[in-house]
Design a protein that fits this description.
The chain is mostly helical. Helices cover 80% and strands 0% of the residues. The longest helix has 30 residues, at 2-31. It is elongated. The protein starts with a helix and ends in a 5-residue tail after the last helix.
């Protein structure tokens, strides 16, 4: 059980790192003027959608860690 918890905590840490990097990329995209070529490229990556999916995964894993056996 402790190995699984440790693995889940490591996975959570990685997901939070991904989330933070996506948020940073989203901020960079927003730093460009609307219509700027680089902003359009970054926005075409659907960062917001991916960020939402990662946030959902983080929430699910946190709930699993906080309430084991309820899933």
């Amino acid at each position: 059980m402790q190995k699984r918890d440790a693995a889940d905590l490591e996975e959570l840490r990685k997901m939070e790192d991904v989330r933070n990097r996506l948020q940073g990329l989203q901020q960079v995209a927003r730093s460009y003027q609307a219509g700027h070529n680089m902003r359009e490229r970054l926005e075409s990556m659907n960062i917001g959608q991916v960020l939402e999916m990662v946030e959902n995964d983080i929430t699910t894993l946190r709930n699993t860690l906080l309430h084991p056996g309820e899933s």
